Amino acid sequence: MTASVNVDRALLADGSVVALRELGPADADALSALHRDLPVDDRYLRFFSSAPRHLDEFVARLTSPEEPRHVVIGAFASDVLVGAASYVPLDDDTAEVALVVAHDRQSHGVGTLLLEHLVSAARRRGVRRFRADVLTANSKMLRVFADLGLVSTSEADSGEVRVDLGLDLGERYLEAVADREQAADVASLRAVLKPKSVVVVGASRKSSSVGNAVLANLLGGDYAGALYAVNPHARHVLGVPCHPTVTDLPEAPDLAVVCVPAEAVAQVAEDCGRRGVKALVVITSGVEPDRLLEVVRRHGMRMVGPNCVGVSSTDPDVRLDATFTRDRTGQGGIGLVTQSGGVAIAVAERLRRLGLGTSQLVSTGDKFDVSGNDLLLWWERDERTRAVALYLESFGNPRKFSRLARRVARRKPVLAIRAASSEAGQRAAASHTASTATPAVTRDALFRQAGVIAVDGVEEMVDVLAALHGTPLPTGRSVAVLGNAGGLGVLAADACAHHGLVVADLGQGTVEALEALLPGTASAHNPVDTTAVVDEATFGRCLDLLVADPAVDAVIAVTVPTALGDPAGGIHPTAKPVLAVSPDQDGAVSLRDDAIACYTEPARAAAVLAALAERATWLRRPAPQSDELSGIDLPTARAVVAEHFAAEPGGGWLDPDQVVRLLGAFGLPVLGGVLVRDAEAAVVAQRSFGGPVALKAVARGLLHKSKGGGVLLDLAGEDAVTYAFESLRDRFGEQLHGVFVQPMAERGRELIVGVVTDPQFGPLVVTGLGGVDTDLLDDRAAALAPLSRADADDLLRGFRAAPKVFREHDEAAVRDVLLRVGRLAELVPELAELDLNPLVLTGPRALAVDARVRVAPAEPVDPFLRRLRDPRRTS
Q1: 65: preceding bond cis by omega (within 30 degrees)
Q2: What SS3 class is residue 409?
Q3: Could you tell me if 152 and 164 are in contact, meaning their C-beta atoms sit under 8 angstroms apart?
Q4: Are 377 and 404 in contact (CB under 8 A)?
Q5: 8 Å CB contact between 820 and 792
Q6: Confidence class of residue 38 from pLDDT cuts 50, 70 and 90?
Q7: What is the distance between the alpha carbons of residues 813 and 529, in angstroms, rounded to a whole number?
Q8: What predicted TM-score, i.e. pTM, was given to this entire model?
Q9: Could you please report the per-residue DSSP string of 554-589?
Q10: Angle CA 529–608–589, to nearest 5
Q11: SS3 string of 279-341?
Q12: Which of 289, 293, 311 shows the shortest CA–CA distance to 302?
């Protein structure tokens, strides 16, 4: 394979790895050989298109300098070209596509993978439609197009079928890509999580060594497969026969656990690759990435680590403990992946104490290859895994993570410990919106939209997992508190309010029934205080009465033992969620025999119940889909951006008239105006508007116009406008290169809507209270684009003042603005920052009175393209 820095490696359906790159003139002989080796019957069934019809024409196009827009992508296995996909532009947005796949590689997913990469390359170059002429007899190729997931039309004529494919990446296509990626990823990870044979390389006789500990855990866990050890200086370690090198092993193991010094890791990986090992777990730390990754990719292996604790699986058919942890994880249904070995050990140990356990544990360490995204693909359909727990210090591909996590969260809970996630918020923020986009805000928006339950540490993660083990989800946020100690009941009610839960108003019938059961000194209103004298049977009947009340969605039952007894025995599972609080128990959380989670503090129970309520709310959200928005003129928007780059190749803030044209192209309600260079033109503009105007300075370095004294309001008449213009010129001097004249807008409630784009996470849309005090109030909500209607609704209700704002004003106009801003951020990748501040609400209308937009050069990125992770790649 010709060396290239632009090589992607991706998985086929069987889990094997191919390399993909664009072909050039030097590849013409390989392409000829690929076609020549096809059986005669295959040549014109698998290699098709009306132009080029014949191979010599195709190769001529590949080698001709007159065909710069002709793109060919090749797939290589062990440096041999096994497939190629090509397109030739027919006009500005349509191209003809061709595909050829080696006969012995057909039906392995090579063609589909090539087409996905060809679609991505074409979209980056502005192609929006593929056309193909396929022989009617070529049912395989027609099936490939049908299954690709793109919107297509076809017409049959004279033995050929003309297929037209739209290259807009809709939900159907992205789901089809994710399904194919899952099948391939699961196939490749079987060698990691279900290996039939394992070798420990660096198995030492020293009990203090990592290699010894790993081998001991594999033996102690009664690993179900064949077990080997490599140590050139020992004949046996812990009773396992040793071999001098991997090359000397009697068979090629599925998995090698590497515990050798850092300087030897790359050579061990090379030996493993040559021997046919399918996967590595590299425990060693301090490994230089370039050489190791080159070896792993060249041999098509998967790799966990380096610098990790290892992997384990409690599947009874596997019984794999390839870690150096002190205690083995218990068998259970929690899939655990962490970048931190310490977090992995801490979570696994606490789960073990609860009587819970893991299905698989993967410590990804430096995450050179296998990442959280890979494990999400594995766990989505793994029936043994009932919940997923994550600790991720970084996101290699956050947009793909969001999509995968959303798929998994629809089937089973996904939890993540909050940790640093981006450098976006570390830069100096130039806009109000950018000042909001800290790493925490961006990460939390990602988790919220993906349905991930975000927690603040190991203890909180275990608290929630304990409840998820056997507690149904609440249908709402209304809680009843039942206790035999009044003070603890009050604390529980306060904790519910603190975590956004509602202390339920009990129905009159419920109150009367409770009063009939309880002594006169009890309180039958929520929180219910039974007093210390009730027995467990009475306490249980009180619980049933609360559960039967339609106003109650969940119950927190707080009990303390007294000399008169302990009513905790009356707590029992019901159709609605019940969490117990027992301050005298050992440990912060426990699981009772009936699977009810019990906590030492009311605040912990309330926090867990709030997390369960959030998950229930998210599950009721409709599946994400893009709203059809009328009045979007993308060509005009792109022309505005191109106009700015023609003058300022490095990007920057658009002039006010450019801002108005850009926003107008997306149907956004923006107050227009006229950019003028002298006082006379300002007067003419004021007269044309027929009323008072605002003058806004357009000056170098002036970003916040109001704070910088660059806004003068309510100006009417020639003298007032002239004086105002001269005042601005005097104030800003040579920095002033124009004044924007706008009609005065009707006053109303002021919001901010903005966008800031992070290179990894993409555009973040922000809204909240606006105007001159926006930074002081700091009341905002954020969501990552693209926005669904549900995401827009979350933004509308996500800032503290939202209930008051939308009691007085219609949500519809603001929702439309949010959706259009989100679409702008999605379709114009050069958008770096945007502020609509203020967005003025008057009755049912919303109007952006002031707007600023910054653009920056941006290379289009396809976050959903199927390719293996490379930590050296920046996108």
Answers
A1: no
A2: helix
A3: yes
A4: yes
A5: no
A6: confident
A7: 47
A8: 0.90
A9: EEEEE---BTTB-GGGG----SS-EEEE-TTSSSSE
A10: 80
A11: EEEECCCCCCHHHHHHHHHHCCCEEECCCCCEEEECCCCCCEEEECCCCCCCEEEEEEEECCH
A12: 293
